[in-house]
Amino acid sequence: MSDFADIKHISNNDRAAILIHALPYLQLFQNKTIVVKYGGNAMLNDELKKAVIEDIILMTCVGIRTVLVHGGGPEIEAMLKKTGIESRFINGLRYTDEETMDIVQMVLCGKVNKEITALIQKNGGKAIGLCGIDGGILKASRVNETDLGLVGNVENVDVSLLNAVLDSGIIPVVSSVAYGKGDDEGKALNINADIAAAKIAAELGAEKLVLMTDVRGILRDIHDENSLIKTVQRSQLDTLKKEGIITKGMIPKTDCCMTALDGGVIKTHIIDGRLPHAILIELFTDEGIGTEIV
Fold first, then answer.
1. How far is CA 153 from CA 188, 214, 258, in A?
2. Is 3 a residue whose pLDDT tops 60?
């Protein structure tokens, strides 16, 4: 259980000290944009879901323009099994035929997106559920290197709708389905949620991109969770890959961070979504909780 859950047991002086400690960060991020990619175990556990939503609402209440981008792999997998559709993966990416794409769109844009939107509103926030097709936020062309079916690479990002929503004080909740281009004009394409978040963050000129994962961050030794690397320079990432420190599933995460940084985002963060209130701890404390890439 996190320290936040035990807040009622601390003294008023300690409560005041916590708020004062956060004050410089609250001032720094006011009216700035932060994009959070929501995924992993934090989407499956009810306690963690509530903590994430509370973090997002608090950020909005203190004047941070917050965009929540989400995936939903486990939910898609469950629905495919329920409907008897076999899952296929090529180089770790889901092969998406038209039948699978129907399920992806139904689960991400319908079920998951609206559940998150409803949860924000249940906890006192205001949110609107969107997908990349709405307002042409995300336009993509089909991946050509490998035949993955209706899987796209994001080529164009239009954030005018997102800015209008943010300007009205509402939290945009965006699912990772894009509007197809070229031969796929008008079709829905399945895209990676991390990439969607990185591209959106860059186009918005965001202060930060936060990727929620099921690991602490970049570990110097993947078998030792105490070997967390707290801060990494963008220029060090290629070296860490060559040394085998950044491997497997962390490679696409750091690639997304590089995309965001190269697009003008000031800092990116990879944090452990298994820990309640990980977003607030990373953003509003000196110590942080994950890896920041600058």
1. 12, 24, 16
2. no
Q: Report the C-alpha gap between 54 and 223 in whole angstroms.
A: 31
Amino acid at 101: M
Task: Tell me how far CA of residue 176 lies from CA of 196, 260, 275, in angstroms.
Answer: 6, 16, 24
pLDDT in tens, 194-206: 999 999 999 999 9
What is the distance between the alpha carbons of residues 108 and 24, in angstroms, rounded to a whole number? 37
- Contact (Cβ atoms closer than 8 angstroms) between residue 94 and residue 151: yes
Indicate the pairing of strand 33-38 with strand 208-213. Answer: parallel
Q: How confident is the model at residue 272 (pLDDT cuts 50, 70, 90)?
A: very high
Structure tokens, 3: 């320290």
Q: What is the pLDDT of residues 11-29, one digit of tens each?
A: 899 889 989 999 999 999 9
d(CA 252, CA 244): 14
**Which of 82-91, 106-115, 271-280 is least confident?**
82-91
Burial grade of 63 (CB within 10 A; 0-12, 13-18, 19 or more): middle
**Chain centroid offset of residue 165 CA:** 18
Q: Name the residue type at position 227.
A: S
Q: What is the pLDDT of residues 157-201, one digit of tens each?
A: 999 999 999 999 999 999 999 999 999 999 999 999 999 999 999
Reading the block at residue 274, the tokens are 């298994």
Q: Determine the Cα–Cα distance for residues 173 and 266; give it in Å rounded to an integer.
A: 22
Query: How big is the chain by its Cα radius of gyration, in Å?
Result: 19
Give CA separation, 28 vs 24, 34, 166, 211, 249, in Å. Answer: 6, 12, 18, 20, 32
